[in-house]
Amino acid sequence: MRIDVVTLFPDFVRQCAAVGVVGRAQQRELLQVETWNPRDYTTDRHRTVDSSSYGGGPGMVMLIQPLRATLEVMRNAAPEPVHVIYLSPQGARLTQGRVEALAKRPRIALLCGRYEGVDERLLTHEVDEELSIGDYVLSGGELAAAVIIDAVGRLQDGALNDAQSAEQDSFSDGLLDCPHYAKPVHDALGSVPEVLLSGDHAAIARWRQKQSLGRTWLRRPELLSQRALDAQSRALLDEFRREHVQYEQKRQNDAVDD
Ligand code: ADE
């Protein structure tokens, strides 16, 4: 897969994409990340990329000309048609489902705004999709681009060492991930749940599914109302709820005793 990033801060984006799983995916040639700086495509002496906003008000707007020229060179740099994404808080919220769909494309481009944003006419004519990484305002699209590169890059075939781990991620089946434990079995901070040491793979899978359902119910209940649970999942969630109520009662009793 190829990801082209249009940004005034190409070094930042390249450095983000050079580390960890995504860096390795690039080394393995599973992923290619290219950056394009609109400042390199300006036509004036001062290399101007922004100007004040018509109608007044604070903040600058990124100009059409440098972005249009950059996007043209970017589009022509590879034969594949490119799906252009503008990153902004006004975009549709990024989800794991959207990440999975993007990861299947051969080529996407990420357009990073700075200042108050980009001239609307450029967005109308050059952009296929607008995405936000959450309901907060960043000072530019670069961090959002880094998020998308990471989320999409790790899904490329061969990027993760354990082929199963993407399937077990939080959200990949609409639920949060279960808790994980490693050495030591007993620690001052507590012990590893016994079932995980049992070697009983069916019991372990059942426990993990129950924890996933339970955590989702506790932390992100709206995710559960968005999906239909089968009978087995409903039974597991009921079991989790009963255990959770017992646990909370015990905790409160212990607190009173103290
Ligand atoms: N640019 C500024 N804020 C952003 C956000 N929340 N998501 C994506 N791009 C942004």
Write the topology of this structure:
Elements: E1 2-6, H1 10-17, H2 20-27, E2 32-36, E3 50-52, E4 60-62, H3 64-76, E5 83-93, H4 96-103, E6 107-112, E7 117-118, H5 120-126, E8 129-132, H6 142-153, E9 186-187, E10 190-191, H7 201-219, H8 221-225, H9 231-257
Parallel strand pairs: 1-2, 1-6, 4-7, 5-6, 5-8
Antiparallel strand pairs: 3-4, 9-10
Helix pairs in contact: 1-6, 4-6, 7-9
The protein binds adenine.
Provide structural commentary.
The protein has helices at 10-17, 20-27, 64-76, 96-103, 120-126, 142-153, 201-219, 221-225, 231-257, and strands spanning 2-6, 32-36, 50-52, 60-62, 83-93, 107-112, 117-118, 129-132, 186-187, 190-191. The protein is an alpha/beta fold. It has two domains: 2-153, Alpha/beta knot; 169-257, Trp Operon Repressor, Chain A, CATH 1.10.1270. It is elongated, with a radius of gyration of 24 Å. The model has no long low-confidence stretch (mean pLDDT 96). The structure holds adenine (ADE). Residues 87-89, 132-134, 136-138, 141, 144 line the site of adenine.
